[in-house]
Amino acid sequence: MIMHYKGSCSCNRWQVEVEVTRSLEEFNPRVCDCNYCQNNPSEIISDPNMIIKFVGGETSITQNGDQLANFYYCDYCGDFLAVGRNLNGQLRGAVNSSLLHSSNQLGESIQIQPRLLCSDEKLDRWGKLWGVLNGI
Ligand SMILES: [Zn+2]
Ligand SMILES: [Zn+2]
C-alpha cells in the first residue's frame, strides 16, 4: 500500500510530498547528536522505499563537518528541508519530518550517532536508509 503525506516549510514556498509504503506511526524520526546537528536541531525520516518530492523556490545548501552530505534549507524562511547526496548517480536523502502536516502521527524519536561511523560506513548506511530525493 502506498501512502502520501504532505508538508511545507514555514513560509510555504517549499511544498513536500512524501510517498511511503508504511504509515507514519512506523517511522521514528532520527535526531543526530553531531556538533552540526546540535547547533541546527532537526528530526529526519527516510527509508529506502520513500520517495520525497519537493516543489518550490530556492534552497541554500550547507555541508556538515565531514562534507559528505548536503543540508538543504529554504532560502527564504531558513527552514531545514532535507539532507542528501548523490549515491550511485541518484540523489538520495532524508526529509525533515517536522515539515509534514501530520508529523504528530510519527513514532517516537530516536537518537543516532553517525559521527561514530567512518565515511565508508556512513555512505553504506545512507544507501540502505535514505529515500529518493526529487525537486530540490
Ligand atoms: Zn520557507
Ligand atoms: Zn549530525
From TrEMBL:
Q: Which PROSITE patterns match?
A: CENP_V_GFA
The keyword Zinc belongs to this UniProt entry's keyword annotation: yes
Record GO terms (molecular function) = carbon-sulfur lyase activity; metal ion binding
Q: Which domain of life does this protein belong to?
A: Bacteria
* Keywords associated with the record: Metal-binding, Zinc
Q: Among its keywords, does the record have DNA repair?
A: no
Question: Could you tell me which InterPro entries the record lists for this protein?
Answer: CENP-V/GFA (IPR006913), Mss4-like_sf (IPR011057)
> Domain CENP-V/GFA, which positions?
5-116
Similarity comment text for this entry: Belongs to the Gfa family.
How is this protein named in the record?
CENP-V/GFA domain-containing protein
